[in-house]
Write a structure and sequence with these properties.
Layout: H1 3-14, H2 18-35, H3 38-46, H4 53-56, H5 67-78, H6 82-99, H7 102-110, H8 117-123, H9 133-144, H10 148-165, H11 168-174, H12 183-193, H13 202-213, H14 217-234, H15 237-244
């Protein structure tokens, strides 16, 4: 693939002008190179068009940052917000998947943490469409009768408490399937538990949600049902099964009917 083809694929998939597609590609690949080892960055640039090699060339060791920090850096380089940067990065990775070998994409993936999965999946042409945050919160609001701020607070409270209750590895698997706006409560919950699932009764689970929302336990249970029902719609069937399989039987009253 030549340089113009790479930019045209990025341009078409992100809905950008040619100039903006070039900026997006440079920002995404330069930031990717910061996250890769020197050897892997050099392996990658060998398969890229000559015009793009300087974007990926590095003499520095890999910096250990997560997906959210990756997007923050891309956004800063592009001069756009983080949500836009994520959309552009997906388009760039789609082009990357067509420009280099499948083996090279696998090698890149091996150096990245799990939360980069949406980009790797795009490069491997198996991208899972991430549910927009606005749609997630709208559905929670419709199910609960809350306004936008209330739906946001309820969603954060339920996701943070859920992330405390399940294993840290499962939280890591869940994060890539949700929009970036919903990552923080999951990270907070995982941090609180130290990555180890905390055993808690259903009443304790609801009490923690209620405390975080400043509502009573009955309202907390209604909000938990709404958020979990929306979660089922937002993530893959397998991921929802993996999450809920870690919950004890008495939590079934909060789960949507099959």
């Amino acid at each position: 693939m030549d340089y113009q083809q790479f930019i045209q694929i990025t341009q078409r998939n992100a809905g950008l002008s040619a100039e903006a597609a070039e900026r997006a590609a440079q920002a995404a690949l330069t930031t990717l190179a910061e996250r890769l080892s020197k050897g892997e960055a050099r392996d990658l640039l060998e398969q890229l068009p000559a015009e793009m090699k300087p974007w990926v060339y590095t003499e520095s060791d890999a910096e250990r940052f997560d997906f959210d920090e990756y997007l923050r850096r891309v956004a800063e380089r592009e001069g756009v917000d983080v949500r836009t940067a994520e959309r552009h990065a997906r388009a760039v990775f789609f082009a990357l998947g067509q420009a280099v070998s499948a083996e090279e994409i696998a090698d890149v993936a091996a150096e990245l943490p799990q939360d980069f999965e949406p980009l790797i999946a795009e490069a491997q042409r198996r991208y899972f469409e991430v549910f927009p945050a606005e749609e997630f919160l709208t559905r929670v609001a419709e199910r609960t009768g809350l306004d936008g701020d209330g739906a946001y607070l309820a969603t954060n409270a339920v996701l943070e408490t859920l992330a405390e209750r399940i294993a840290g590895g499962e939280v890591d698997d869940l994060i890539p399937q949700l929009p970036i706006e919903l990552h923080e409560p999951l990270r907070r919950g995982k941090a609180r538990s130290g990555g180890t699932a905390r055993r808690m009764t259903l009443d304790t689970f609801l009490d923690r949600i209620a405390e975080r929302e400043s509502v009573d336990p009955f309202q907390a249970s209604e909000h938990a049902r709404a958020v979990l029902a929306t979660l089922r719609e937002a993530i893959s069937v397998k991921e929802f099964f993996d999450v809920t399989a870690q919950l004890p039987p008495d939590y079934q009253v909060l789960l949507p009917a099959p």
